[in-house]
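Attaching the record inline, Q. Sequence:
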Amino acid sequence: MAHLIPHYIDGQRVPSSGGRLGDVFNPATGRVSGQVPFADAAEAGRAVEAAAAAFPDWRDTPPLHRARIMFRFKELMDAHLDELTRLVSREHGKIHSDARGSVIRGLEVVEFACGAPHLLKGSFSENVGRDIDSHCMRQPLGVCVGITPFNFPAMVPLWMFPLAIVCGNTFVLKPSEKVPSTSLRLAELLTEAGLPQGVLNVLHGEREAVDALLTHRAVAGVSFVGSTPVAEHVQRTGTAHGKRVQALGGAKNHMLVMPDADLGQAADALMGAAFGSAGERCMAISVAVAVGDAVADALIERLRPRVEALRLGPADDPQAEMGPLISGAHLERVRDYVAVGVQEGAELLVDGRDARVAGYEAGFFLGGCLFDRVTSEMRIYREEIFGPVLCLVRVPDFDAGLALVNAHPYGNGSAIFTRDGDTARTFSSGVQTGMVGINVPIPVPMAFHSFGGWKHSLFGDIHIHGTEGVQFYTRLKTVTSRWPTGVREGAAFHMPTMK
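Structure, as predicted:
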């Protein structure tokens, strides 16, 4: 019998009273591994109220004490790294090495958050006017909400709540209902590290829960990562109700391969960036842009046999290079995209739609797919597929390649492979994406920098984690002060100036 995964509210596991449940699958077997409750508006309200009640005391807790709790959380995450890896793999399907790496990348944000006493330092100016001083401070927003996707059950939540919490906010996390267990375990570990009750709460659900959080009067800030249509909805609804919102949407990331590139290195990069995590990454390279037919032909010669030979398997298979997709519905969606690409005239060189894994025939496995001669009018080029499908587009020169990237409505990430510094500099300066790799296929910034795209890949003005994350989860207050000196100057009715 499938086990029930509870909410986590006010420091303890809380069974749902809403009645609606959703199935959680093991994608490798296709079987139900658990059930998750779908919170209604009343349950969402209870989670927000728990966070609101905890906020005044947590806001007044010194940043050094908050950081010490985060240090203990980091140590507990290190000790439970294998357990967290297995949780990610069990519900998402990632192979263990990929799942472990994603947990570690989230842990790096925890390490960054441990620097709260330094990150929250203000500034001071003496004598901005005679006997007048000014100082600035950063103060928390209040109750913040995080809404996270299925593809990174640990990493993306860890991009949000550690930084929000060390900045003095309280938090309600709404993870994807497809991968609920990792967030629950992270909350328990943070409570074990000494976090007071109510500071971090985990609420499961679908749109009803999300809309209840977006409209609740006590919520001050919302962070979101997911698809562009939902990101637009979150940004529009949240801001209409007075929330500060950062909503990261979809992507269609390009890798421009120049004639002078190391093509062996470029092929290695494309294999990992397109097919790692079964392509279910917002930073996956899904479009290879080959400059010239000679480069395109050479890339195809290298890629085709490797895509055909991709080893599929469950997460615990040490030989597996790629696991299953998240669900049966998503598997069919990606298969349909491949069929559309064929109908539109793209050349399907490798067709992974009929892939099977012995002993896991009911799993949601799809083999790697490789298209050549894709054009910018095709749906497989325009839309985010979110699966192991790599499209190769041929362009005559660098300028045409750069124009192609810049014309796409998404602007999350891009990469260029070249040996020429001038070409690389021109690309990185002129490309209209938020993150750029030079001979680096997946340019995800480290925790002390910030992550975010441009155009339809980001709704809101502030990127996630790093220094911009601190800015998002705090607001600036400037204090100007003068203390009596015994000298009276009389009333002034003009705008104060330094003259």
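The domain at 253-438 is CATH 3.40.309.10 (Aldehyde Dehydrogenase; Chain A, domain 2). The mean pLDDT is 96.

More tomorrow.
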